[in-house]
Amino acid sequence: MPNAQIPVLKKNRTKKRTSRKIAILLILLFIVLLAVLFFRSSLSRVSEIRFDGNVFSTREQLLNRSGLAVGDQYFGVSPSGVSEKLRGIQSIQQVTVDKQFPGVISVHIKEFATVAYELQSDGSLRAILANGSSVGVGSSGIAVEKPILTKWKSDDPYKAKLCDALSSIPGEWTADISEIIPAPIPSFPDRIKMYTRSQFEVITTVSLLSSKMSYLNQVLETEEPGLITMLKADSYVPFKPDTSEEGQEKDTTQ
C-alpha cells in the first residue's frame, strides 16, 4: 500500500537535517578556532608605525599623543580616533591615517604653514604659524624669506590676524619683508610698521595688508628705498630726495 512508505521518508528527512546541523556546527567551530589563532598571532598586531609630514613634532611626541604602539591590536586602531588626538597638537592642521594589512599604520600629517618668526627675549627664534601659534624651531631650521615679528605681546589680538593675513599672501610677495612691528595709533589700532630687505620702511594696517600688497610690490620693484604709506591713501617718499623733475613727479600721494 502507498501509505506504508511514509514513515521511511520521515526518517530520511530527519537524518538529513541532523547531518546539516552537525556540518554547520563544525564550520562555526572551525571559524572560531581560526579567529582565536589569528588574534593570538603576530598578523593581528601592529608591526610598524610610519609618520610623514611632521616638522615641528618629533616621532616620540606623535606616538605619545596618538597612543599608538607596536604590538597593539591592528583591528583595534581607530583612524578617526588617532586623527582627533593628533589634531590637538597646535602645529598640526590635518591628519590622515591609513591602515595597511598586515600590521602597518601610516600617519600623514599636514602642519600649518610658517608665516613668520618671532624673536624671544633670550635671542632665540620661534616659528609663527598660520593659525597664530608659536612653536620652537629646533632642528628644522628657518626660512630666510619669512619676516620676523618683534615687540608683539603674546595676547595681542592683531597678532593672530596678522598671521592669517600673511598666510593668504603668496610667499614671493612677502619674501622681501624682514621685520614687522606693531605701531598702533587711536585711529588705526592695528597699524604696523614693516621693514624690507631692500631698505624700505612700510606703514600699513593688519586689515589692509592683503589688499595693499600689489601696490607695495610695484613700488619695491620700481623705486629707490623710501617710506611707503598704505592706509586710506597710498604714498611713497624716497629717503634720498630726487631734485629732478621726474623724481618730483613720483613723490605724489595716490
From TrEMBL:
Q: Which InterPro entries match?
A: DivIB, FtsQ_DivIB, POTRA, POTRA_FtsQ_type
The protein's role, per its UniProt record: Cell division protein that may be involved in stabilizing or promoting the assembly of the division complex.
Q: Where are the transmembrane segments?
A: 21-39
Q: Which HAMAP family match?
A: DivIB
Q: Keywords on this record?
A: Cell cycle, Cell division, Cell membrane, Membrane, Transmembrane, Transmembrane helix
Protein's membrane topology: Single-pass type II membrane protein
Q: What is this protein called?
A: Cell division protein DivIB
UniProt source species: Paenibacillus farraposensis
Q: Residues in domain POTRA? A: 44-112
Q: Which GO terms describe its biological process?
A: cell division
The subcellular location is: Cell membrane; Membrane
Q: Which family does it belong to?
A: Belongs to the FtsQ/DivIB family. DivIB subfamily.
